[in-house]
Amino acid sequence: MLTYNARKWTRETWPRFLTFICNVVRLLRVRAWSACQELSLEAVRDAPAEVLHFHAYFIWTDHVGFHSRNADVFVFEDVRPRVDICQGRAMQGQCRGAALHGLWYVYVEKMGLSRRPPTTTRSTRTSLAPRG
Length: 132
Fold this sequence. Notes:
Number of strands: 5
Low-confidence stretches: 111-132
Distance between the termini: 19 Å
Structural class: alpha+beta
Helix content: 10-25%
Shape: globular
Mean pLDDT: 73
Order of helices and strands: EHEHEEHE
Strand content: 15-25%
Largest sheet: 5 strands, mixed
């Protein structure tokens, strides 16, 4: 899972982020993906305006996936994402279940989140309520 944080982003950044993610999907031949934007609840307390962060999650089914010595391909508007690799179930030989759980985690509406009217494909979600 990729997590992008930048105080400079507003709600209007979301379409650019989706375009960027779609380009990454094509470039890296991603089989399935999900993305969302969320309000950063902790950062909002000290900020004069709302602070958003984005998540993206990718699945490859070619038994190759993505290998690189850096995450340059994932840099969006000069922001390098935090990269989290699912290891829990994958370490127990349940890679598919772990991958699907990650895809679901990014896409699913979490308690305290509300969805804006859909403006993108069904593979994405827009959440602008604070995470609980």
